Amino acid sequence: MKKLAFLLAFGLALPAASFAQASVSAQGVEKEIEALENQRFDAQVKKDYAFLEKAFADDLVYTHGDGHQNNKAEYIQSIKDGKSQYGKIEVEALNVRLYNDAKTAVVNGSIFITSPVKPDGSTSVAHMKYVVVQIKDKKKGWQVVLWQAQKQAS
Fold first, then answer.
1. What mean pLDDT is predicted for residues 19-47?
2. 87 φ/ψ angles, rounded to the nearest 5 degrees
3. Which CATH number covers residue 145?
4. d(CA 108, CA 133)
5. Which stretches of 47-133 are DSSP H helices?
6. Burial status of residue 96 (CB atoms within 10 A of its CB: 0-12, 13-18, 19 or more)
7. Are strands 69-70 and 88-99 parallel, antiparallel or unpaired?
8. What range does the domain containing 28 cover?
9. Rg of the chain, C-alpha, whole Å
10. Are 115 and 127 within 8 A, CB to CB?
11. What region, left, alpha or beta, does residue 54 occupy, with left being phi > 0 and alpha being psi -120 to 50 degrees?
């Protein structure tokens, strides 16, 4: 009887332990994605093209707050050409949701983008809400496949 009670208790505890372990693992992936988002924003400001090449998937669709779209090559070139300029990017909110056994991440949040300082010493700030989709490639790791932003009213 004691053996049966032990097996029953063990059988009920195992799924709970498994769920707790999966939850801790998911939290680790969420933290990894949050860190990657912040690193990518930093790379955009610092014009770290090597990081951006790795962070963006080859089939990236990047939709700016004003509605125009770029692919990966066009977007990185727009930073090089000065069409996309970032003095500072501050994260206001960031939420990560995982799907497909934690191989797909949907991120939504809001940021403040400050322009580089203009010759007259002024800057402008844009408040943006955004959605990002990242996928985990077996060889390349996490990559952004979609960026969609919308400028918020001042």
1. 86
2. -85, -40
3. 3.10.450.50
4. 9
5. 49-55, 72-80
6. buried
7. unpaired
8. 2-151
9. 21
10. no
11. alpha
